[in-house]
Amino acid sequence: MKRIAEHVLNVCHDAEIHIPAISFDGKWHLLAVRDANNKPLTKLQLQKDIWKEIEGKKKQEVLAELKVLNKQPDWEILKNGHGDIIRIDAFRKVKIPLPKISERVIRQRIMENEHIKQKSKRVAKKRRTENR
Asked: Which domain of life is it from (predicted)?
């Protein structure tokens, strides 16, 4: 059913027919929340999948998995040509990516680092002038 809907949308797009919205009954709900490979398309569906996966596990199993996630991750820092940080990823030893850090958090951390650098420069300058 998903392939049929996507085909119809693609044909309409090729014919320059704009379809602003699609509606369907609850029977086809999965069309809206899963892709063709059955991966979640929404944050809510991802949360439901994770909850379904862990709700049957014991507390000790969940804690053991969390410990493994945080053991010595390898950090990958991607910078653009100007030296600005574009993305920061953490990988476990088996190279399974941990959740991505959002762009907002990256910008916030960059601004905090810049603020700290500026403050330390002001303090160093103040010390130099006091020592003269």
From this structure: Eukaryota
* DSSP code per residue over the chain: -HHHHHHHHHHHHHTT---------GGGTHHHHB-TTS-B-SHHHHHHHHHHHHTTS-HHHHHHHHHHHTSSPEEEEEE-TTS-EEEEEEE-TT-PBPPPPPHHHHHHHHHHHHHHHHHHHHHHHHHHHHH-
- Give the C-alpha separation, 93 to 87, whole Å: 19
The fraction of the chain above a pLDDT of 70, given in percent, is: 78
Mean pLDDT confidence for 53-79: 77
If you count them, how many residues does the chain have? 132
Q: What is the mean pLDDT of residues 92-113?
A: 68
Rounded to whole angstroms, the Cα distance separating 92 from 108 reads: 24
Report d(CA 90, CA 107) in Å as an integer: 17
What's the farthest any 2 CA atoms get from each other in the chain? Answer: 79
pLDDT, one tens digit per residue, over 21-43 is 877 777 777 777 888 788 888 88
